[in-house]
Amino acid sequence: MATPTEPDWDVYTRRPFVFGGIRHDVLRGGDSGPVVLLLHEIPTLSWRTVLLADHVRARGFRIVMPLLLGGIRRKPTNPIGTALAIAEVAPRILEACVSWQFVALAQRRTSPITSWLLELARQETAAAGRRQVGVIGMCFSGSFALATAIDPVVGVAVVSQPALPFAWSVLGRIPGQSEAVGLDDEDWQRLLDRRSADDVCIRTLRFSKDVKVPAARVARIKQFLAPDERFDSIESQDPAAHSVLTDATEVPKDPSTADDIRRALDSVVGTLQERLVD
User: Fold this and answer.
1) Rounded distance between C-alpha atoms, residue 78 and residue 107, angstroms
2) pLDDT tens track for 53-112
3) Of 16, 61, 254, 258, which has fewest CB within 10 angstroms of its CB?
4) Distance CA 113, CA 117 (A)
5) 3-state secondary structure at position 92
6) Terminus-to-terminus CA distance in the chain, angstroms?
7) Which distant-in-sequence residues (6+ apart) come within 8 Å of 56 by Cβ?
8) What are phi and psi of 264, to 5 degrees?
9) How many Å apart are CA 156 and CA 260, to the nearest integer?
C-alpha cells in the first residue's frame, strides 16, 4: 500500500475529554477495529501525526489522538508557515516543563497525564467493544505510552524516541537522568510484573545518534521490558534525526534511515495487529 503524501483531516472528529481535572480535545477516526491511542510529538498535533494516523488507520485500526499541547498544525504552504512551525517548538517545550500534567524533569515520578490517558483508553475500549488498546508515544509523549502500560487496558505500548524526562545537554549530567523512564518506583514494579507475565508488549524505537534521547534510557527499557526488540536502535548518520515513525510517512530527516524506518513502522503495525485481536 502506497503511503499518501497529504493527511486526510476530514475523517477525524474532534471533541473534548475531561477527567481528573484535565481537559484536552481528542481527534477520532475509523469506524471499527482495534483502538490505537496515538500521542503526538512536540510542538503539537501536526500534519505529520495525521499522516501516521492515516497509515495505521488504513490497516484496520480506530485512531484516537489527544491534543496534549498547542493547537492543530497543518502542513505549511510557504516559508513563513515553516518558520512559524519551527518557532513554536521552544514555547511548547517550556509548556511541557511547567505544566503539572507533564513531569518533564523528575526522575522517579509518574506524570499525572497517565491517569487521564488510561481513563480515555478505558472509555474507548468500552465504546469499541474491545478488551485492550495500543498506545504509541513519540518524543515528549514516549514516556507517557510506557506509563500507560502499567494498566491491563493497554496491550501494546510503543515507546518511540522517549525524550522525557529531558536529559539533553547539561541535563544529561544529572545523575540518573539519562536512565530515567518517567515512572515512580511502584509503577515501575507494576510494569515489570506485567512484562514478566507476558501481559503486555512494549516496543522501543530510537535513532542511534539521536542527541535528544539518551541511549541509556532505551537500553534500560530494552533490558527489563523488551528483550526481543529489533528496532530499538536504528542506525543513523544525522544527530538531528529524531522522529522515527513520523519520518517513516514523510521525507526522513536522515535519508540513510529511509528503508529501516519503513520496516520499523511495518513491524509496529504488525505487532498491533497480532496483539490487539480479541
Assistant:
1) 40
2) 999 999 999 999 999 998 888 776 666 666 666 667 777 777 777 787 888 777 889 999
3) 16
4) 6
5) helix
6) 25
7) 36, 38, 63, 136, 269, 272
8) -60, -45
9) 21
